[in-house]
Inverse folding.
């Protein structure tokens, strides 16, 4: 006679039926009875204990210092969905690799009807979420966090307020860093030059600066918070902004693919740019670091004869509607060259209105001459020429700065090449100094294709107008 209890699933059957399971709990088939409800009520009111939500899937790239609690690279929303399945239980946790910041790990924990997320670190065979307490196992870490929650009635989702103050007062820990993509200094806004060790990155908050700018950023480092978590609570009486027109871009006009693109959309909304100029349903790619991890070369070709132009790494592209008076789009896209035109953010709307006007012509201006239009195939050069505009992000109240660049088709043989006036230093290693600019006086030889947007944290950024 078998000793196996009736209605009891084996571990193999559980694995086949559910790829995720609480290690400390086994469920019976009749779990919907009064015993289950009583058990659930006792668990909610009892002293919380760690409950590891184990991943039963085989993950080929699982780090050796993680066990069944590791679920691979999943977004925050997926982690919350897993932890909230069958109701939130105090103490249930899992570990995941950040979907937005590959290489970083997060501890997701349910407590008090909420799901909290912590940046998890591993060093010298110890786990920690700050630099003051180290643990031999993740279970020990979770036990300590739960013990803290028992005495703190109001959990804010990160760390106690007194701990936050101590963390903010920590100095920056800068180390030389090699960037795989174009990168700009978050203090002066200048480009980080070089092939390797182009700049200095703070190991605590991820701040990227020139070596010469390190001494100017101050000593307040948000060490326990990632760059995406450095939020400032928006007060009810926040800085007033001009009302957004009904026809202007809103936060839900586009379908952003990442957090950076969402921020760029909010900057367009801040500028009150009419949405009628954009192909909102078109493919509007983002070229941030997270979205361009597999890019091999930052260069592309276009036109006949073909000309090189930069991939707009670090920017977000929003495609414009075709101009009715322009040549057929298939002719333009296959034979014309692509380049960038720097703009002042506050002049974008007026420029689009003039380019999309039906009476657009190549006539002389009132002064009797055609204005010289200067474009460049280099996104680095376009970034240098594009002024930055400071604003307050409507989503989180953080001080931001934004830039805009027009990506446009330019007709071959309608322009001349020239060097940057007054500059003897190399601007872009991929383009010769004598051909860094394409200039023309023919307005109709330029057809707008897309508007590029770039935003950055302006907490440490110093602009000339601020000095």
């Amino acid at each position: 006679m078998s000793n196996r209890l009736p209605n009891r699933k084996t571990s193999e059957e559980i694995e086949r039926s559910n790829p995720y399971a609480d290690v400390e709990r086994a469920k019976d088939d009749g779990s919907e009875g009064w015993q289950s409800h009583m058990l659930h009520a006792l668990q909610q009111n009892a002293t919380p204990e760690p409950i590891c939500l184990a991943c039963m899937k085989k993950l080929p790239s699982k780090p050796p210092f993680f066990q069944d609690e590791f679920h691979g690279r999943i977004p925050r929303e997926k982690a919350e969905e897993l932890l909230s399945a069958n109701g939130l239980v105090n103490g249930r946790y899992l570990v995941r690799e950040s979907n937005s910041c590959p290489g970083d790990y997060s501890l997701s924990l349910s407590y008090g009807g909420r799901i909290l997320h912590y940046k998890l670190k591993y060093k010298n065979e110890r786990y920690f979420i700050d630099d003051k307490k180290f643990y031999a196992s993740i279970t020990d870490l979770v036990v300590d966090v739960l013990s803290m929650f028992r005495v703190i009635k109001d959990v804010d989702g990160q760390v106690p307020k007194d701990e936050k103050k101590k963390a903010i007062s920590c100095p920056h820990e800068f180390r030389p860093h090699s960037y795989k993509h174009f990168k700009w200094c978050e203090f002066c806004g200048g480009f980080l030059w070089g092939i390797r060790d182009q700049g200095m990155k703070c190991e605590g908050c991820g701040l990227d600066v020139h070596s010469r700018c390190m001494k100017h950023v101050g000593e307040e480092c948000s060490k326990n918070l990632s760059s995406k978590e450095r939020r400032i609570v928006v007060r009810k009486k926040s800085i007033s902004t001009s009302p957004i027109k009904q026809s202007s871009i809103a936060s839900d006009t586009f379908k952003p693919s990442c957090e950076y693109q969402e921020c760029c959309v909010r900057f367009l909304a801040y500028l009150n740019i009419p949405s009628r100029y954009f192909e909102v349903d078109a493919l509007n790619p983002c070229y941030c670091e997270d979205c361009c991890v597999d890019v091999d070369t930052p260069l592309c070709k276009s036109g006949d004869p073909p000309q090189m132009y930069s991939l707009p790494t670090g920017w977000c592209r929003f495609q414009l509607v075709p101009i009715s008076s322009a040549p057929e789009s298939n002719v333009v896209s296959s034979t014309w060259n692509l380049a960038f035109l720097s703009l002042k953010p506050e002049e974008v709307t007026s420029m689009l209105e003039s380019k999309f006007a039906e009476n657009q012509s190549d006539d002389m201006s009132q002064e009797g001459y055609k204005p010289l239009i200067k474009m460049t195939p280099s996104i680095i050069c376009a970034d240098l020429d594009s002024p930055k505009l400071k604003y307050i992000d409507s989503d989180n109240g953080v001080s931001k700065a934004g830039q805009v660049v027009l990506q446009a088709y330019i007709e071959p043989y309608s322009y001349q090449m020239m060097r940057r006036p007054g500059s003897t230093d190399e601007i872009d290693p991929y383009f010769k100094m004598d051909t860094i600019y394409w200039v023309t006086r023919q307005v109709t030889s330029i057809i707008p294709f897309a508007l590029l947007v770039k935003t950055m944290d302006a907490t440490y950024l110093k602009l000339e107008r601020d000095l």
In short: The first strand starts at residue 20 and ends at 22.
